[in-house]
Amino acid sequence: MPLNHVMHVEDDPDIRAIAELALVTVGGLEITQCASGAECLNALSNRIPDLVLLDVMMPGLDGPETLRQLRMLPGMSEVPAVFMTAKAQPGEISDYQALGAIGVIPKPFDPLTLADQVRQLWDQAQLSSG
Amino acid sequence: MQAPPIPDNERQRLLALNSLDILDTPPEAAFDRITRLARNTLGVRTVLISLVDANRQWFKSRQGLDATETSRAISFCGHAILGDGLFEIPDTHADPRFADNPLVTGDAQIRFYAGMPLRSRDGYALGTLCLIDTAARTLTASERELFRDLAELAEAELQRREQLERVHLRAIVEGTRAGLWEWNVQTGATVFNERWAEIAGYQLSELEPVSIATWQTLVHPDDLASSEALLNAHFNGETPIYELACRMRHKQGHWVWVLDRGKVVSWTEEGRPEWVMGTHIDITDLKESEARRLQTDQALQSRERLLRTIIDNIPMNIYVKDRSGRKLLANRSELNQLGIEQEADILGKHDRDLYPEHLVVKSDQEDRAVLDHGETLSLMENESADQHGQPLWYRVSKLPLRNQSGDIIGLVGLSIDVTEERNIKHNLHRQLQFLSVLNDIAADTKNTLNARLNRALALGCEHLGLETGIISHIEQDRYTVQWCQAPASMSLNAGDVFSLGDTFCSLALQNDGELVIHSATGTDYQRHPCYQLFGVETYVGIRLMVNSQVYGTLNFSASQRALNSLEENDLAFVRLLGHWVESALEREHDQQQLLQREARLRVLFELSPLGIALTDLSNGQFIAVNDALVQQSGYDRDTLLTMTKRELSSGLSHQIDQQGIRESAEKDQIGPVEVKVKHRDGHQYPANVIGLKVSDVDGSRLLWTVYEDISDRRRIERLKSELVSTVSHELRTPLTSISGSLKLLAAGHLGEVPAAASKMVSVALKNTDRLILLVNDLLDMDKLIAGRMPFDLQPLALQPLLATTADNIAGYAHVHRVTVTIGEVPPVNVKVDAYRFEQVMANLLSNAIKFSPEGETVTIDARTTTSTVTITVRDHGPGIPEAFRAQIFQRFSQADNRDNRQKGGTGLGLAISHSIVQAMGGDIGFESRPGLTEFRVVFVRV
To answer: Model-level pTM?
Structure first.
């Protein structure tokens, strides 16, 4: 199953704008964007995405906490999650994987390749689970 | 003239003659009767019985002649005894043998001679009966017959004597208590008398039948040989008698001594000894007493020698005087002392001849006491002097010498030289005295230094018998009296200053640091200012060294000569006293310095921003704490001093404490270790602790500990870490937006960008990338320094790793128009973190590309040893400047700051690479020259 719908949770509106361009315009994906963890949890009651892309550092619920809570929502226990963080660099992904993420995309990300990176992680997750 | 020839049997003849014992005996009537008869009947002037001895003829009887003998050489009888019968010379004048004979030509005027030989029983012609006249004549036949008869009478008379000899002897011997023996040498017949047997304890009848063998069995075998030798000597005429003291075995088995004497009393016709007669006298008693006497004599002699040896070798003078005081004996020791070689030179001399008068008077009195009253004098010490005038001391004993009846006949003097003993005693006494003085001074700890030094000077003065004692301090030419003891009249006080040159101490300092002047008067010292100005007569002074520097002097002096002359001991005393003064001054000096140093250290201790505590190692109790520790821990000082180190720093620190103590068993230094200190308010704070073990003067083990409160440092570290984390987040968030926007712009996703704007967008993008790199590098560096960078080390194949690296850098290389090629890479594994390995390679490659001229190639190679893999990145750039090489792996280092702008880069790349490689157990190095630079990374081969 190809990746189609991504839920993107990011508190910074500028990054949300760039990510939208990168994923939708450049990447051709359908996205739902939320400005906080709480908004994300609410939005999930409406529609289950294929993949959740979570910023780590957010006021209120941060990325890992949001992931913990959304896992408890109906139908969300298996949805792949990917962290985006400015705190870590590539290669230091094990901590985040332990939280249940299939991958980490460090900030700053390349908007031209962001969709590809997400798709790659999706494909890997599909392979390993399939 | 013809001298009479010597007959062939001359020896036996002489033996036979001698055995008669007739020569030189008085005239005998029996012979005189015959000669007288012959003269009267034959009518001749002279008739003689002549016996021809070895060199003379001797007349036993003579008629008509006064001479008693004449020389044999001119004798007529010498001729006469050669023949058998009458020897007649009718006219000497007509006979060529005698014509010129002095008896013919001389006063004797012999003209006629007739001689008849007289023979012994054995037939030897012993002499003649001869007729002599001054007129020539011839005997008639009847006259000759008469003459022969008369000669036979004379001969018989001679032979009778031979017989008589044995009979007489026997008679004589029997009258004595002598044993008698007779032995016929030729036949072996032997006769012993009763006494002979009795001497050996036998009755003669017990021994019979006797023979010479009887004798031979009884005589001591050792004596038999000498007996035979002596007998033969006697038989040969060598000895007039045979005599021997020999031993005979007594019937009861013991030996008796016998004086054995014998003599040949008759001879055979062949001249061999026939009868030997001899006597035995019992000389056993004599022998024994002789032996006893010999023994006694020898014993006496050896005793005397022994005594003499003892007397001469005993280390004591011994002499014997007679009643008048004359020396009768002086032993070697006495002679040596008097300087006299031979005892003989002193014997008979009186003390007056040997000693000075005053000694003699005293000695005489002593002698009289001994001689007149029989007193024994002892344990007196006399004084005399040796050649050098040094006093000599003797322990003298005088004893009376008595004879057997108890009368005093002289005296014996014994004296021992006890000079040395006395000197030793004297010195010992002095030494004990000054040791006790020194001990008093040294043991005095109650008083102050001043008091003790003054006391030392006072005791020194007293001991030396000198009035002034000074401890001076000398600086250049300045002599300062520091402490002194002096008579009030001198008005000398501590603090007085003199010119050094005016003191004898100036000489002491030059003179090996010691000077003794017994008496200045009459010496060169008299011209010295010290004598001239202060009248110092006696002086003893030594240099004082304090902390290896000349401090001054210790000196004692007096204006008069000391009562007792200063001895070597006294200098030793001053030296010892000086040592004590030196050490006292040194101690004082050290103490002052110590106090100063302690004051300085105390300031440091109190003002130190670090907490400092002194702990008793045995129980951990605090002994001293400084303000900083008080403030740090929140306790007041008194509370802290009741606590132990462990109570202050517990929990985790306890464990570290144990470790610290364990370490301290081997090392004096502990730590630094981090401990948690319990604050008074209950919270704990981290502290770095360093300890140093020391020994106190009393030997107890102490521990200095420095507590550095590192809670601030920890807070700052935490803040910094948070800051880096925050900064990186806060920076990256806008950078993400900027970078993302610019990339979308540049990629044309937001529509066509005008050319001029596009250029600016790419400038903005490039600088955004650099900003991102810088942020990343700072974050890496922070993690590396803090040791928080995680490494996921895996054995990985080298070839694909390098291929990925080359691929990733290809775009960058293309921009710089540089080619990156992979050379030879062996198929080996290395144990690395893939991401960090790539980071290092990317850094090295980007540097190589950055500095390569356009069109050049950057080459990646790898080679292996058995244990290592070396990866090289080679470029053909200008090379690394010499000055930069040493710091190439340091942070924020770039060869040229302008590179930042021209080449890009943060200046952290190589430093990060270096740290990463080391963290992965590898090493990094380089080699560079213009046109060729090679970086090498070495990893452990898997």
So the answer is: 0.40
